[in-house]
Write a structure and sequence with these properties.
This protein is an all-alpha fold and about 290 residues long. The protein is about 70% helix and about 0% strand. The protein has helices at about 5-15, 20, 25-45, 50-55, 60-65, 70-85, 90-100, 110-140, 145-160, 170-180, 185-200, 205-210, 215-225, 240-260, 275-285. This is Cytoskeleton associated protein 5. It is found in: Cytoplasm, Cytoskeleton. InterPro entries: ARM-like (IPR011989), ARM-type_fold (IPR016024), TOG (IPR034085), XMAP215 (IPR045110), XMAP215_CLASP_TOG (IPR048491).
């Protein structure tokens, strides 16, 4: 129904405020709206600016736009929003479910890449559980393309943030079913995530997979053997971990200056925020 418009139509929508352009029925108007929104998002310096709240209800539309070209611009703007807006966490469920159903089925690789980036950014802003929930739901989708992208996103999340942030149990639970898929692409992706999970928990992964097809198990064994034996370390951290790390570094450098070359100045232990988080978690699990 979006037929060619006369110049008259164009001049009408051009006068509209950004948020109205973003919801316009003409794709050209929406494209212009998303482009403007992206520029606004890049300019806002304060993560708590009230400007962010104006767009809260629109971010899902950005990622689920029915026009593929416009959708790419929407995804780009959404990513910047999630990265920088203090209110972005409120949109996690609806936006990630929109990414799963309306982005992961797109033919363009760029759309999938941006969709995955958005999911990972929500994890970084402390929304791992909600993201994981939507991705796990996506594994039941009838479209294998969507299933593959959800497994890939879970694998990347695990590889980057580690097994303290990404819960392995629910993924391991569905692995045997994924290995039984009729779709080769799904089975291949299941194999990749099984290799990634093995990096983090090693032989604890064997019992849950003992009943999968023996050929598949043998293929996994061959991959597992190649993995380095050391404990893997995450390469990406949650905002809270980043802040903790920054605080520790600040204290250490302040401490270092204050020592003024005292004897024990070099004994300040280097604390790793990740290990600290681990210690806190272990303490919380001990019986009270």
């Amino acid at each position: 129904g979006e037929t060619g418009s006369t110049m008259g139509d164009d001049s009408e929508w051009m006068k509209l405020p950004v948020d109205q352009k973003c919801e316009h029925k003409l794709w050209k108007a929406r494209l212009s709206g998303y482009e403007e929104a992206l520029k606004i998002f890049q300019k806002i310096k304060d993560e708590k600016s009230p400007e962010w709240s104006k767009f809260l209800g629109l971010i899902k539309k950005f990622v689920t736009d029915s026009n593929a070209v416009v959708q790419l611009k929407g995804l780009e703007a959404a990513l910047v929003y999630v990265e920088n807006a203090h209110v972005a966490g409120k949109t996690t469920g609806e936006v990630v479910s929109g990414v799963v159903s309306k982005v992961f089925n797109q033919p363009k690789a760029k759309a999938k890449e941006l969709g995955i980036e958005i999911c990972l950014m929500y994890i970084e802003i402390e929304k791992a559980e909600a993201v994981q929930e939507e991705l796990l739901k996506g594994l039941d989708n009838k479209n294998p393309k969507i299933v593959v992208a959800c497994i890939e996103t879970l694998r990347k999340a695990l590889s980057e943030f580690g097994s303290k942030i990404i819960l392995l149990k629910p993924i391991i639970k569905v692995l045997p079913k994924l290995f039984e898929s009729r779709e080769k692409a799904v089975r291949d992706e299941a194999k990749l995530i099984a290799v990634e999970i093995y990096r983090w928990i090693r032989d604890a992964l064997r019992p849950p997979l003992q009943n999968i097809n023996s050929v598949q198990l043998k293929e996994l064994e061959e991959e597992w053997v190649k993995l380095p034996t050391g404990t893997p370390k995450p390469s990406r951290f949650l905002r809270s971990q980043q802040e903790l790390e920054a605080k520790l570094e600040q204290q250490q450098s302040a401490g270092g200056d204050a020592e003024g070359g005292g004897d024990d100045g070099d004994e300040v232990p280097q604390i790793d925020a990740y290990e600290l988080l681990e210690a806190v978690e272990i303490l919380s699990k001990l019986p009270k």
